[in-house]
Specification:
Helices cover 42% and strands 12% of the residues. By secondary structure, the protein is of the alpha/beta class. Strands 1, 2, 3, 4, 5, 6, 7 and 8 form an eight-stranded parallel sheet that branches.
Length: 274
């Protein structure tokens, strides 16, 4: 099995300095250039969806490897009744998490969005309808983010300080325009570097196993308390997995923190803790 495949693209000027003679003809040049373009397009497409990719702008993906802090994050809520069950689990463990909420769900059940914030958890913007923002115009991106922010402030009226400036793009999809509009609105983009792959509601043991394989310390963990297609998605296994994961990693000396707390603790890029 090939474990590592590396591509390097050189300019003509660089190639001229190589101590070799290059032989090619016009029949070869076309396919070569087509391949280079295809590789570039593939890399660009990957970076637009890759959680830790930074080609299109800076996003927060966690702390330096080895840090004894973990941030649990939940997407696609609020969701009746599983968000409430999750809040019970988090309260029992005295853990605060970060929730990225969908605006149209907030409007349906604002009381649950309010309960999340009043319990001390952080609430963030996950757009109003959960579209793939990479195919939206700048105006469409702005509308999605602004509508979700309005829904959050309406639900948590009188406590606007409980609404964070955090934003997570649906499916992780972003391009320069997405991040530019978000920052123009004062929003800070947050991605992840660990996921439980729980959107299809696998058994709790499978969610735990997948998360455990990726944990290195300083991680932002992506889980789901709802589903973007409709209200009422079954997240019972995520709730159960959360209970087990917190118990496991607390016993190993990890501290669970919110994204704002983790951001305050970040160290210089590229630096690893001992």
């Amino acid at each position: 099995m090939i474990e590592h495949l590396r591509f390097e693209v050189f300019s003509i000027k660089q190639l001229q300095n190589f101590p070799i003679t290059l032989h090619y003809n016009s029949c070869m040049l076309g396919p070569i250039l087509t391949g280079v373009v295809a590789l570039g397009a593939g890399a660009a497409g990957y970076q637009s969806m890759a959680p830790t990719g930074q080609w299109y702008g800076r996003t927060f993906t966690g702390l330096a490897r080895g840090t004894k802090k973990l941030a649990l994050t939940y997407d696609d809520g609020p969701n009746d009744t599983y968000t409430l069950r999750l809040l019970e689990v988090l309260a029992r463990h005295d853990v605060h998490a970060t929730f990225f909420l969908i605006g149209r769900y907030i409007q349906q059940i604002p009381e649950i969005a309010r309960q999340i914030a009043e319990a001390g958890h952080v609430v963030g913007n996950h757009t109003f309808t959960h579209p793939l923002l990479t195919v939206k115009s700048a105006a469409g991106i702005r509308e999605e983010l602004s509508a979700c922010r309005s829904a959050l402030h309406d639900a948590i009226s009188g406590n606007s300080q409980l609404v964070s400036n955090l934003f997570r793009p649906p499916f992780g999809g972003r391009r320069p325009a997405v991040l530019r509009v978000a920052r123009e609105l004062g929003l800070e983009p947050v991605m992840w570097n660990v996921t439980g792959y729980d959107w299809n509601a696998p058994p709790a043991a499978e969610i735990e196993r997948k998360v455990a394989k990726q944990i290195r310390g300083g991680d932002v963990v992506l889980l789901h308390d709802g589903g973007h297609k409709e209200m009422g998605a079954d997240r019972s296994q995520t709730v159960l997995a959360t209970d087990h994961l917190i118990a496991r990693y607390k016993s190993e000396g990890y501290e669970f923190v919110t994204i704002p707390r983790m951001m305050n603790d970040r160290v210089e890029p590229g630096r690893s803790l001992p």
